Design the sequence.
């Protein structure tokens, strides 16, 4: 059995009772024991501004960068805003990627789950985020892709999966992600 892997979870919705956060909690419950998931709060990050990139950048920036560097992998959970990711998630990506030569994201195994109360399941946000992950040099799990539409019928208010087919799918997704992390760790 592989040793425990630390997975930083970034939730692209700031609302405490958001469906995206509920799904992130649910993923932690169905993840294999080899994965330790922790939601990393990103709502307090000042907007990225290169003028603030000094010897003493804002403390929330430093906290995020250090936490991502310490993680073995990153799981992104995102809703869709205007066919893209929410600004708060894009800001976290930008903050973690700077300074460019010290990007906290580089080489981190990643996976994306997109969530929507609608039927399209945030397909646009999922793929838009994947474009950014390529630029960040984050090997991203390709299959299975995770789009959760009509999420109100899948997860309850406490982050419990209430649909058995969804439970089976998310359990497989997290198991595959755990395997992906191990494969990426073995690459030169």
Sequence:
């Amino acid at each position: 059995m592989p040793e425990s892997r630390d997975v930083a979870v970034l939730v692209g919705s700031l609302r405490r009772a958001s469906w995206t956060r509920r799904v992130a909690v649910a993923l932690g419950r169905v993840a294999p024991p080899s994965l330790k998931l922790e939601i990393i709060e990103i709502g307090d990050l000042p907007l990225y501004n290169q003028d603030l990139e000094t010897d003493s950048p804002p403390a929330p920036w430093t906290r995020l960068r250090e936490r991502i560097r310490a993680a073995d992998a990153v799981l992104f959970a995102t809703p869709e805003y205007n066919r893209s990711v929410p600004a708060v998630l894009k800001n976290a990506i930008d903050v973690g990627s700077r300074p460019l030569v010290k990007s906290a994201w580089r080489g981190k195994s990643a996976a994306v789950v997109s969530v929507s109360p609608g039927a399209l399941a945030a397909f646009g946000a999922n793929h838009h985020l994947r474009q950014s992950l390529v630029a960040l040099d984050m090997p991203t799990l390709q299959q299975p892709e995770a789009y959760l539409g009509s999420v109100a019928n899948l997860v309850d208010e406490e982050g419990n999966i209430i649909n058995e087919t969804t439970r089976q799918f998310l359990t497989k997704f997290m198991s595959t992600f755990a395997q992906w992390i191990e494969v990426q760790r073995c690459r030169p």
Remarks:
- The two ends are 21 Å apart (CA to CA).
